[in-house]
Amino acid sequence: MNNNLNMKCGYVTLIGRPNVGKSTLMNHLIGQKIAITSHKPQTTRGRIQTVYTDDRGQIVFLDTPGIHESKNKLGEYMVKVATKTMEEVDLILWLVEPSTFIGAGEHMIIDQLRECGKQVILVINKIDTVSKDDLQSFIDAYKKEMDYADIVTVSALKSDNLDELMQRIYDRLPYGDPFYSEETLTDQTERDIVGEIIREKALRLLNDEVPHGIAVTVETMRTRKAATQTKKKKSKHVHPPKKGKQNDAVVGTDNGGVPDLEAMLSALKGGEKDAADVSTETEIMDIEASIICERDSHKGIIIGKGGSMLKKIGSQARSDIENMVGCKVNLQLFVKVRKDWRNDQVQMKNFGYKNTK
Q: Which of 23, 137, 177, 183 is the most exposed place for a label (fewest CB within 10 A)?
């Protein structure tokens, strides 16, 4: 028996229909982006665990896929992940949108909440999209359906009322020792997060018919030292790069074997310091990843005319990955077709969606 009466610690899951803002809320509660987000439903496909620790204790958040009517084996997997997680936690946050209409999807969740018998905090999200005068009517509509441990209205996107929600969570958790060290933030590996970042950018950039049928696999992640520039004799005058091929080569390169552009610009501003006089000891991470799709026509859309769409996905993903790993990234993306992989359990397992017992 745990007798620590100084800290509140427990597991808390976020459940709800697709696109109600579960991942956005979790990211804002812990103060860092771990789960990917997009306006397209069913963005989250697996259980993502994050850890929040402060003087009050420790909360282990479990973000889950949206509960929806399954149309393939991947959909069945996602719903199983969400429902199974409800059985393993101390507290459930049920996220809903501000509305007086409670549809079949919400009633399905209500039945599962009643069956699991856990404490439930109803979280009415996206209150920044409605009038404050209407909030009580939304609360009253959901109060008629079942009893809750608490009801909190928030805007995850605007970070409104999140401190209040966090305190309500702590109020409902048991006393105990932390499960993880203070430094622990997530159970996701760096490779997992890289794959999800790439998938997020694809979700945001591609049209509606493609995103649900894609997966991302990260084949290689290797770190190497960037090429070190040799010190050259200082020149009294610095000549800017000539227009044409030479300039294009400097700006368009993506690896560590070219002059450092920032150093060159700095040298040009200084007027006396040669760009080649700067020595670098930075690292570069080489990443190779594949975007998996189900149809040849989708492959063409993902690549885009002249590779334009794939370049956009890679450019946006590279920026986020560099912020995470803290060094330059050389990202190489490929597109592969695996027909109907969402109904193939073997391929699903290969892409990281393992069976849930």
A: 183
The letter for the amino acid at 287 is I
**What's residue 90's pLDDT?**
96
pLDDT at 191: 92
Is-contact 286 318, C-beta < 8 A?
no
Q: Which structure tokens are listed for 300?
A: 């063409």
Cα→Cα distances 198→14, 51, 219, 288, 315, Å? 23, 23, 13, 11, 10
The partner residues of 60 in beta bridges, in order of sequence, read 11, 51
What pLDDT is attached to residue 40? 58
Residue keyed to tokens 């059985």? 87
What's the whole-model pTM score?
0.72
DSSP assignment letter at 182: T
For the purposes of burial, counting CB atoms within 10 Å of the CB of 86, is it exposed (0-12), middle (13-18) or buried (19 or more)?
buried
CA distance to 20, 34, 260, 265, 271, per residue, from 268 (Å): 50, 39, 12, 5, 5
Is there a contact between 201 and 317 (Cβ–Cβ < 8 Å)?
yes
- Cα(297)–Cα(295) distance, integer angstroms: 5
- Give every residue of the chain whose pLDDT is below 70, as ranges: 1-3, 36, 38-46, 68-71, 75, 208-209, 211, 227-281, 355-357
Give the per-residue pLDDT at 228.
59
Tokens of 111: 């039945």
Distances (CA, A) of 299 to 51, 74, 202, 222, 333: 37, 20, 12, 27, 12
